[in-house]
Specification:
181 residues, 8 helices
């Protein structure tokens, strides 16, 4: 399970997100690049904000799954975008990626079902935003040209970990008063 969940670690997701952004921009799909940057940034900011807030507040939901949110947007939403999927196909692809990675997070006992659900909803919501903002892909964009960069990034970075969760928790406990919500 760790092998599978590592594909959604920030050490992989952040470079893959940047590669996607650069590809879309270089391919001439400026609207798609801006949509990707917006959806990706919103997903990261939403997860960081939720983790900061919930780490200081406590309660049943303490750490929404960033892996699940990232998988939904990057792997599900990104694939659907490049395959020229409809809005519903985008939601289904993002949901499938969230379900798959969310199951690994549960199996590893890293997150609760509620943590995974919230992460999945954030990721699916951002994927739908991506679809809405991107509009139709220009015919000149050749998604297959992106594959070598993605494969290389995954091979080089898979298994690396950014320990963002611990940094967010330390920040929340250092700056915010626990239970002050």
């Amino acid at each position: 399970m760790q092998f599978l969940t590592d594909f959604a670690d920030q050490a992989v997701i952040l470079p893959v997100g940047l590669i996607m952004l650069l590809f879309l921009w270089q391919a001439g799909w400026r609207r798609g690049a801006r949509a990707w940057a917006s959806a990706f940034g919103l997903m990261l900011a939403s997860m960081a904000g939720l983790k900061l807030l919930l780490a200081s507040c406590g309660g049943g939901l303490t750490s929404p799954s960033g892996h699940t949110a990232a998988a939904a947007l990057v792997w599900g939403g990104g694939a659907a975008l490049l395959l020229r999927a409809s809005r519903w196909q985008m939601a289904a692809a993002a949901g499938l990626a969230a379900l798959f990675v969310g199951a690994t997070r549960l199996a590893l006992h890293v997150h609760s079902p509620l943590d995974v659900l919230v992460g999945g909803l954030v990721g699916i919501g951002c994927a739908l935003l991506l679809h809405r903002l991107a509009g139709p892909m220009p015919a000149a964009v050749r998604p297959q040209r992106l594959l070598p960069g993605l494969v290389l990034a995954m091979l080089l970075l898979h298994g690396a970990h950014f320990h963002i969760e611990a940094a967010i928790r330390a920040l929340a406990l250092g700056w915010l008063r626990p239970g002050a919500c």
